[in-house]
Amino acid sequence: MHGVGHHGGRIGGDAFTFTTPHVRFGDGVARAIDDVLARAEVQNPLVVTDEGVEAAGVLDPVLESITGDPLVHYATTEPSTADFDALPTDAADGVVAVGGGSCLDTAKVVATLLAHGGDAAEYLGVDTVPGRVAPLVAIPTTSGTGSQATQTAVLTHDGIKRGVSDEYLRPDYALVDPTLTFGLPASVTARSGFDAFVHALESLTARDHRWIDPRPITYQGANPVSRSLAREALVQVHGAIERATFDGDDRDARRAMSLGSHLAGTAFSASGLGIVHALASALGGLVDAPHGDCLAASITAGLTYNLPVRRDAYASVARLLDLDDPASTRNGASALVDECDRLRRSLGLPTGMDDLGFDRADVDEIVANTLVQERRLPTNPRRAGDDLQAHLIEMEFDG
Ligand SMILES: [Fe+2]
């Protein structure tokens, strides 16, 4: 097995690379923005945020810490390629993103347009950015996507969610300040936190890089660095997500979520994800439900699909998370599958695909839309194929 356990795995001779932004983590680090902008040689930053972040009072401490009077651009909650027409592109020489995943994704495209001009739609796809983008400082206000560490942005184009994936999109600096998340509502904490949980779990158990053909984006399979970070991310998020959801004032839990979600994003930006995300993207394309809800609805079906090739790895994760109970049948790999189900119930998230309104008649479409997920499936530990259909019927829609 490709050790997810405590002893690591065999280190083969195959090369791998790993990339991360410069990171500052801790209470108050967002207030260091002026110093970071000076290091990045940015004189006129464009701040990309959204109205919800501003209304929550989270933008103010950042704006107050920037010398001068920066321009502010408001991202939409579902950014589309049509949202970039009115950018003040001449006046800015760098971007500061303050917000959740959609806002950080918007800022990556803004930084691209500042440097290279053109139209947002031109950059859809993989490896389309011709060179370095404008300096980008990402300041997350949720503990979920980890977008501040990744090289991708999700944009809607002609009504369909598309991606821009390019190593140039990875922010130069990530200022991960837990204090910005202290006031997050429980529902956002649960949903975005569950996303981080699945990032860590799918990254840790992804196909090993040695078994993946080189791809033009950096989702290259799990390697020893990504697994180290994913393991720590999983422990932090699993240990804190319920406390942070049920007691928003638990600052240690907020800090653990902040760190864990960041490490998970850093890890999966190298390793890639798997079938839980592929299923969730398929569901999210068919119904209007948040990403975290789609993940919760997909996790049991996804993990059990991979069980034949990840039984030992899941058992190892169960030990890592102290789930094993020798006195019960809840041990080994099934202890992990059971725990993921318990967790989604505890957090009030969907407990299956039927909770999102799907029934047996939808299986063909869900399977078809899952099997086309070329970003996710090559790094899934099991090659997904037509047998996914029978599996979904059995796990989700039988009786
Ligand atoms: Fe995700």
Task: Give keywords.
399 residues; alpha/beta; Rossmann fold; Dehydroquinate synthase-like, alpha domain; six-stranded parallel β-sheet; three-stranded mixed β-sheet; 12 helices; globular; binds fe (ii) ion
Account of the protein in words:
- Keywords: NAD, Oxidoreductase.
- This is Alcohol dehydrogenase, class IV.
- The protein is α/β, with parallel strands linked by helices and 399 residues long.
- It has two domains: 22-181, 3-Layer(aba) Sandwich (Rossmann fold); 186-396, Dehydroquinate synthase-like, alpha domain (Up-down Bundle), CATH 1.20.1090.
- Helices cover 43% and strands 11% of the residues.
- It has twelve helices and nine strands.
- It has helices at 33-39, 51-55, 60-64, 101-116, 186-204, 224-246, 251-271, 275-286, 291-320, 332-346, 363-371, 387-396; strands at residues 22-25, 45-49, 71-74, 94-99, 125-126, 136-140, 152-157, 160-165, 173-176.
- The chain has a six-stranded parallel beta sheet, with helices on both faces. It has a three-stranded mixed beta sheet with strand order 5-8-7.
- α8 (275-286) packs across α11 (363-371).
- The chain is globular, with a radius of gyration of 20 Å.
- Fe (ii) ion (FE2) binds next to α5.
